[in-house]
Amino acid sequence: MTRRRKNFRPEDRRNQIFDCAQQLFQTKGYSRTSINDIMNIAGVSKGAFYHHFDSKEAMVDGLLRRYADQIRGAYDAVLETQGLSALDRYKLHLQILRDRQALAEPQSMMLIIASLLNEEDSGFQDRLMEEIVAAVVPVFAEVLRLGIEDGVFLIDDPVTAAPLIVRIANQHRYVLKTAFGIKSAEDQKAVVKKIEDSLKMQGLAIDRLLGIPDGTTQLRHVNYASDFVANLHAK
Amino acid sequence: MTRRRKNFRPEDRRNQIFDCAQQLFQTKGYSRTSINDIMNIAGVSKGAFYHHFDSKEAMVDGLLRRYADQIRGAYDAVLETQGLSALDRYKLHLQILRDRQALAEPQSMMLIIASLLNEEDSGFQDRLMEEIVAAVVPVFAEVLRLGIEDGVFLIDDPVTAAPLIVRIANQHRYVLKTAFGIKSAEDQKAVVKKIEDSLKMQGLAIDRLLGIPDGTTQLRHVNYASDFVANLHAK
DNA sequence: ACAAACATACCGACGGTCGGTATTGATATG
DNA sequence: CATATCAATACCGACCGTCGGTATGTTTGT
């Protein structure tokens, strides 16, 4: 019965479907969301869905690509900014990813959080993380190369180091899993500490690999862990 | 205790189903393997399957647990061996995991390789890796603690460091993905180098986090990368 | 006899396909 | 300038095979 909207360009429809899918993934998780669910929320028939996407997987690819492109948009400033020392450029890189992280809460961060709840969704999580790696690594490898030239970073292969470091930072997600199943306030405190300890250790691993002073790499804002746990508890 | 038809104890049936499932996962990948496939290969009815397992997920859990228990069996020697220096104990830990890795080829390593082929199977991969982490971390954390006591490792929190380090080592799997799609012999050489570079960088990250000399941590045997690529090419 | 160990028929949900219809914009024509 | 034409595009909804899972009946060992 749904009538066709004549002002809709194909791209708009695709984005509309993306939006609905993302919303559903956030609220009920990836694996629990069927194409029928997405269809119904979007007010679109199955035929329409498969007109715009070859498969469910292809749709998810498009959604993740769109997400990664948003990161690229903000992150490309790392190389575009002029007149920075190698270490300052590295710190800018950290800051942009930190800020993005803070902004993305709850928008896109909830994508990850929701998928953390179900073991089945770890594949989705993995794909999301790899999209992020693909977006960040090319720029970050150049940041490392510049720092190696200046003698700031004590490694010899930025292209190999870049994905390793980004994935060390992304190990974060395994620790967040423990944040579920919190009951008492003491649990809450313990989990906050565990997340903070883990973040510190990740930063330490990166600092020492690069040969820069302990504590240089701050992966999240100071209140990240407590905010995360508080947010989680509120729902 | 209770002996049933064909001399089959319940545990034997379970292991038989595990074996068939593992074989199928290796040959055609996890997501492409249905319960019906497993039933048919095992020569068992659906009723029998669901008599022994609550769900497909439960069966997979059991299979992964069995795999992790095999690791535990060999790995527990790390703490049982007496009279070792902290660094030698750490090296023993590395050696046992390296040897196990070499032995496990093609047996259980193929589990990972097969799941690397399909993007859809990354969830399965993730679960496998987390089982390994759960098996290794308790012992490894103690190894680290002993080394910290002796002033060999320059960190202060073995319980946080242990899973981080194990997962750095497991990052390996992301690099292996690039080994597919090899055509020319030059490709082959380049991929071998890429795998070796990555392994070296992972070892370096661990060495420097722990504060031990560069090159101490050898994650695989020397011919691992070339053997892997050669094996892959043979099929 | 009785429970464990199976077997079989069946179910609903899922991703995906298919034949068909409505809408559109470009172009040809009166 | 208005309109008929028409292929491409956007969309619909019934239908299909497969999957994980269940309900219920049957065999087998003790």
UniProtKB/TrEMBL annotation, chains A, B:
Gene3D superfamilies linked: Tetracycline Repressor, domain 2
Domain of life from the UniProt record: Bacteria
Positions of the DNA-binding region: 34-53
Residues passing through the membrane, by range: none
Organism: Yoonia sediminilitoris
GO MF annotation: an example: DNA-binding transcription factor activity
Name of the protein this chain belongs to: TetR family transcriptional regulator
A Pfam family the protein falls into: TetR_N
Classification via InterPro entries: DNA-bd_HTH_TetR-type_CS (IPR023772), Homeodomain-like_sf (IPR009057), HTH-type_TetR-like_transc_reg (IPR050109), HTH_TetR (IPR001647)
Record key words, sorted: DNA-binding, Transcription, Transcription regulation
SUPFAM superfamilies: Homeodomain-like
PANTHER family, sorted: HTH-TYPE TRANSCRIPTIONAL REGULATOR BETI, HTH-TYPE TRANSCRIPTIONAL REGULATOR RUTR
Domain HTH tetR-type as annotated: residue spans: 11-71
